Amino acid sequence: MTFSPLLPLGMLVVLLGALALFAIVQFARAPRRSGSWHWLVRLGMVLLLFGIALRPSLASNDQPSAASGDVDVYFVVDTTSSMAAEDFGAQSEPRLVGVRADIAGIAERLVGARFSLITFDAETVQRLPLTTDASALVSGANALNQEVTVYSGGSSISAPVEYLAERLAVEAEANPDRTRVMYYLGDGEQTVAEPPGSFKALDPFIDEGAVLGYGTEAGGRMRQFNGYDSDAEAPYITWFSDSGAQDAVSRIDELALRGVATQLGVDYLHRDGTKSVDAAIGSIRVGNVEAETGAPVGTPEFYWIFAFAFGMLALTEIGALAVALRDLRRLEGESRAG
After folding, report:
1. Which CATH number does the domain housing residue 121 bear?
2. Which of 38, 111, 233, 251 is close enough to 219 for a disulfide, judged by CB 3.0 to 4.6 Å?
3. Ranges under pLDDT 70 in the chain
4. Which of 68, 196, 77 is nearest to 142 (CA)?
């Protein structure tokens, strides 16, 4: 049995002890007065409040892989044009549709963590600083779009490494006891001439996480984006060859994504909309909330037993109040009649 007091234990003892002493004194001063037994009821309610405030719960012997405590979750999202490729899920939707759904699913299972949203294309941008507001994260994810097509100059899967290394180093120095989780969401496509850089520099700062891959080997076409709205009727991105203009096709590079996962020391998971995000959560634990098999599961608490008993005693107080009001009206009536 463990306890998680709502207030410091000393403060609880002083406050509720004073209330209990007051109830005892009131009962002792008028033991024969009608209704004095209500002070015993009130004493019981004070004791039950103490039980509620202690928040008793069962101790858990499970040891999560991530430290039990405060957790920072970083979502690093590829927003280059290739993430608009229409080969995600049974409906062949843009890959970013899957990204949005997975971010929402992970946030739902890691209630209480701090979340940050970072995107990269031509530049790396922190869209959302660390916050416990999961709704802000989901709103930010739902607003994600591919980069403006005319500004696209090729993609590098390692583009955010330098920014992340600086950001994580600062956070690690400021909050060394926090657990840091990173999710890298992309398709692994490297279209610039240079080979991708290594993610090894981030490994010392990352405790848990996963690389989530989107796309298929067959690939998908990408619609153009003008920066204002996502038009389902927009023309597809094209490239020119000796035979003329052709629709560009983006294909997932799982070998590159597995390499990123290895360098970060996390798992690689291919995402196609057919499975939940449970495998990406693993046994990460946030305070009393542990996500292992689906929705967050809390440590069993027993304050509700005390709360139920408190409610039953409170009903007697309501009854006593009703009687007092009735007697008051009767006395007022007698006074007027006299």
Report:
1. 3.40.50.410
2. 251
3. 1-7, 30-35, 58-69, 230, 241-242, 287-301, 319-324, 326-328, 330-338
4. 77
In a domain, 65, yes or no: no
Domain count, the chain: 2
Question: Distances in Å between the alpha carbon of 304 and those of 15, 207, 238?
Answer: 21, 35, 63
Structural domain that includes position 281 = 71-296
Residues 310 and 261 reside in one and the same domain = no
CA distances from 244 to 14, 238, 249 (A): 84, 10, 15
Burial of 70 (0-12, 13-18, 19+ CB in 10 A): middle
Which of 221, 228, 196 lies closest to 95, judged by CA? 221
For residue range 56-93, what is the model confidence (pLDDT) as tens digits? 776 544 444 443 348 999 999 999 999 999 999 999 99
